[in-house]
Write a structure and sequence with these properties.
The complex is a heterodimer. Chain A has five helices and seven strands. Chain A is of the alpha/beta class. Chain A has one domain: Rossmann fold (3-Layer(aba) Sandwich). In chain A, strand 6, helix 4 and strand 7 form a beta-alpha-beta unit. The radius of gyration of chain A is 19 Å and the shape is globular. By secondary structure, chain B is of the alpha+beta class. In chain B, a hairpin with a 2-residue loop joins strand 1 and strand 2. Helices cover 33% and strands 10% of the residues of chain B. Chain B contains four helices and five strands, in the order βββαβααβα. The radius of gyration of chain B is 16 Å and the shape is elongated. Classes of the chains: A alpha/beta, B alpha+beta. Chains A and B meet through strand 1, strand 2, strand 3, strand 4 and helix 2 of A and helix 1, strand 4, helix 2, helix 3 and helix 4 of B.
């Protein structure tokens, strides 16, 4: 995609900026702190649904232009012989306190995009790996990645209508989860359930801070 | 790997703000432009061109960033709302920060992982949603 020829749009100006106190805090630190949680998992597993159910703004999409390995199939853009592609990432925002804002980033789950995750997860609180029990294998690249990176993460089974139910121990086996990795259920369409899943990421991150 | 930056030639370079980036008049080395890093245009009244911006021949993208960031925005929001790739936005914002025209806020993760105090506030906030 060629961005050089296109004027930057102003279509999104209706998305309100953050309301930020004017003054620096008494200790001299800036008046607002931002942080992020990463939401990962396979295609169509409900990442954007979870982001949308918690976000105070309509989820936005940001694009990274990047080079990908040439592959004859499974092209994102459907074009042959092209070595750069645009990877889209959906994200949302939720202001938790007047001076604390949390960003939620949905990342493409496919293993070949992992090189962009390093950049994305730096500084993150932690991650949720979402799982559709009908296609558990699609979350494996994400689980492998977060285990290696040491980022606190929880695995969340997205409760789709009609999803088969499994025993937790069977799921843990199927996912080859480490004993310390939390496995939870959530309904990404439900705000409270999604917020609780995010809270579990923070609980796990706190546990890991304590263990350091 | 080299990103396609639309031929402008600078987008594939560092995602870091240059060490001499100015924030609110103070030198703040080591600032990193994460996707969640908040930025805001300095010294700018709504609808006016600031003294810093007057007379400059900025690229349209730079002007758009200056206008958009009169409110506090994250790097990712700038990218999404202006329909510019993240890599390009990072370079332009880091240039503007180096020129003292945009202020870059610290994030909770600038020094590694967010600390316990922040995590506890975050947990409380999520549980109140």
């Amino acid at each position: 995609m060629d961005y050089a020829g296109s004027e930057p749009g102003v279509a999104g100006l209706h998305v309100p900026p953050l309301a930020v106190p004017n003054q620096r805090r008494s200790d001299g630190t800036p008046p607002i702190t931002s942080t992020k949680i990463v939401v990962s998992g396979g295609f169509g597993v409900g990442k954007t649904t979870l982001v949308a159910s918690v976000s105070e703004i309509e989820p936005l999409t940001t694009e990274s232009v990047m080079t990908v390995m040439s592959e004859s199939t499974d092209r994102l853009d459907g074009l042959p012989d092209k070595t750069t592609t645009t990877v889209a990432m959906d994200f949302g925002r939720v202001t938790l306190e007047s001076d604390l804002v949390l960003y939620l980033f949905g990342t493409p789950g496919q293993g070949r995009f992992q090189f962009m995750w390093d950049d994305l997860v730096r500084g993150a609180v932690g991650a949720i790996v979402m799982v559709d029990t009908r296609r558990v294998e699609e979350c494996f690249p994400a689980i492998d990645y977060f285990e290696r990176s040491g980022l606190p993460f929880v695995v969340a089974i997205n409760m789709f209508d009609g999803s088969p139910m499994y025993e937790e121990s069977d799921l843990r086996d199927a996912l080859s989860l480490r004993p310390e990795t939390p496995l939870i259920e959530c309904d990404a369409r439900n705000r409270r359930s999604s917020a609780e899943a995010l809270a579990q990421v923070v609980v796990h991150a706190l546990r890991m801070v304590g263990a350091r | 790997m080299v990103a396609d930056d639309g031929g402008r030639g600078s987008a594939s370079r560092s995602a870091r703000v240059r060490p001499y980036a100015l924030t609110q008049g103070r030198t703040a080395p080591g600032h990193i432009l994460f996707v969640e890093t908040l930025v805001t245009t300095l010294d700018c009244e709504q609808g006016e061109e600031s003294a810093l911006d007057a007379g400059r021949r900025d690229m349209p993208e730079v002007r758009a960033i200056i206008v958009l960031c009169r409110g506090v925005r994250s790097v990712a929001e700038v990218s999404a709302l202006l329909n510019l790739p993240l890599g390009v936005v990072r370079v332009l914002i880091s240039d503007l920060a180096a020129q003292g025209r945009i202020s870059v806020y610290q994030t909770a993760g600038d020094t590694g992982r967010p600390d316990r105090a922040l995590l506890e506030r975050l947990l409380g906030g999520l549980r109140r949603l």
